[in-house]
Design brief:
This protein is about 35% helix and about 20% strand. By secondary structure, the protein is of the alpha/beta class. A 5-stranded parallel sheet has the order 3-2-1-4-5, with helices on both faces. It is globular and about 45 Å long. It binds adenosine-5'-diphosphate (ADP). Adenosine-5'-diphosphate binds next to helix 1 and strand 4.
Length: about 160
């Protein structure tokens, strides 16, 4: 049986924190599916196409990594992909509380799927996509926070309106 994990998120944009969790998971799983959730409730900052392009560029030489988009429940998507694991990163106690709720609800819905948490590397504990977006909005340089393949251009943004 192949060990397949789904790493769901918005990756708006992907940060070095996400990248590190994904790469570290390669020693635990045979196949890691990085899945961009298309959440209709949540407006994104960068176009979906752009987020996909970045993920493909970052993991282009990793045959064990698949990049996809999905909508609907993560557990339904996992079943469709035969994935028995959901991968998540933990930075803080706040992350833990948030993830505990989702993880335990997912467990009640589909008991066969386990959520696996990786503690983030200490240098990424304060790094979040939302802070990266704030820095971009205000014209700052985010190169040290995002993978090298992530080159930020204004036209990649959905709009300049703040939300
Ligand atoms: P959301 O679920 O809000 O879309 P993200 O797409 O930002 O969240 O994150 C997806 C996953 O990546 C979550 O498990 C989150 O905890 C994790 N993550 C986010 N930032 C980091 C980081 N700096 N280091 C490790 N894991 C992270």
């Amino acid at each position: 049986m192949q060990r397949i994990a789904v790493f769901p998120g918005s990756f708006d944009p992907i940060t070095r924190g996400h990248e590190s969790v994904i790469r570290r998971a390669l020693s635990l799983f045979d196949h890691v599916i990085v899945a961009i959730g298309e959440n209709s409730e949540k407006k994104s900052f960068f176009h979906l196409e752009q987020r996909l392009t970045w993920l493909h560029a970052i993991f282009t030489n990793e045959p064990k990594i698949e990049i996809v988009t999905f909508s609907g429940l993560t557990v339904d998507f996992c079943q469709k992909k035969n994935a028995a694991y959901i991968l998540r990163g933990l930075r803080t106690a706040a992350d833990f509380e948030f993830e505990r709720g989702i993880g335990q609800m997912n467990k009640l819905m589909v008991p066969g799927i386990e959520t696996v948490f990786l503690l983030c590397e200490p240098e990424y504990a304060s790094l979040s996509s939302s802070i990266v977006r704030d820095i971009i909005r205000n014209g700052g340089d985010v190169r040290q926070f995002v993978p090298e393949a992530v080159v930020i251009k204004n036209e990649y943004r959905i709009s300049n309106i703040e939300y």
